[in-house]
């Protein structure tokens, strides 16, 4: 059973970020992704396959689709208000932001030239806390989701996508 969280309204996200120029947006591939998939009727994940023609090596990737879409939407929202925004996803194959191996730290900033003034997490508050510990409390970290219950769901894997079966799934508050 997953923690069910809802994304903050745009006005609240803008308010949290209003005093900062450089925003690092982190999307968790765990419960936040599942919550967004349920709410937005989007896939939990989409598996991609890429083949390098030169080396004939096939690369597969599982993208936390719903949190990726939300990060892209929020990035556009913040950039339209003059913020510099970089986003990064915590993949499904990794530990989540809130549960991980002791001592595990994420290399969550894909651009070492980008120094964030604030980190916004598309995650539960426990995920935001994990990142706050990783940055040694040197940068403010805020979750932009509100936990409001549990999500019990069934899913189907079809054509490289994992989708929620809505008639068997529900939110428990």
Explain what this protein looks like in three dimensions.
Helix content is 25%, strand content 40%. With 173 residues, the chain is of the alpha/beta class. The strands form two sheets. Strands 1-8-9-3-4 form a five-stranded antiparallel β-sheet. A four-stranded parallel β-sheet has the order 5-2-6-7, sandwiched between helices. The chain is built from four helices and nine strands, in the order βαβαββαββαβββ. The mean pLDDT is 88. Helix 2 packs across helix 3.
What is this structure, in a nutshell?
This protein is an alpha/beta fold and 173 residues long.
Order of strands across the widest beta sheet? 1-8-9-3-4
Q: What Rg do the Cα atoms give?
A: 16 Å
Residue fraction in strands: 35-45%
- Helix proportion of residues, in percent? 10-25%
Q: What is the ordering of alpha helices and beta strands? A: EHEHEEHEEHEEE
Helix-strand makeup class: alpha/beta
Helices, by number, come to: 4
Shape: globular
Strand segment count? 9
N-C termini distance: 12 Å
Q: Regions with pLDDT < 50 over 5+ consecutive residues?
A: none
- The averaged pLDDT comes out at 88
Sheet with the most strands?
5 strands, antiparallel
Layout of strands and helices, then pairs:
Blueprint: E1 2-7, H1 10-17, E2 22-28, H2 31-40, E3 45-52, E4 57-63, H3 65-79, E5 84-90, E6 118-122, H4 125-134, E7 141-143, E8 145-158, E9 161-172
Parallel strand pairs: 2-5, 2-6, 6-7
Antiparallel strand pairs: 1-8, 3-4, 3-9, 8-9
Helix pairs in contact: 2-3
């Amino acid at each position: 059973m997953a923690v069910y969280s809802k994304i903050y309204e745009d006005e609240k996200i803008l308010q949290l970020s209003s005093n900062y120029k450089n925003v690092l947006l982190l999307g968790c591939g765990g419960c936040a992704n599942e919550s967004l998939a349920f709410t937005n009727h989007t896939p939990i994940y989409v598996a991609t396959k890429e083949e390098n023609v030169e080396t004939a090596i096939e690369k597969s990737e599982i993208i936390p689709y719903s949190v990726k879409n939300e990060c892209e939407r929020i990035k556009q929202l913040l950039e339209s208000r003059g913020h510099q925004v970089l986003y990064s996803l915590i993949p499904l194959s990794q530990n989540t932001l809130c549960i991980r191996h002791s001592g595990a730290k994420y290399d969550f900033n894909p651009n070492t030239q980008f120094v964030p003034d604030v980190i916004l997490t598309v995650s539960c508050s426990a995920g935001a806390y994990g990142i706050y510990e990783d940055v040694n409390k040197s940068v403010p970290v805020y979750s932009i989701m509100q936990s409001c219950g549990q999500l019990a769901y069934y899913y189907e894997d079809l054509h490289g996508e994992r989708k929620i079966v809505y008639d068997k799934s529900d939110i428990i508050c």
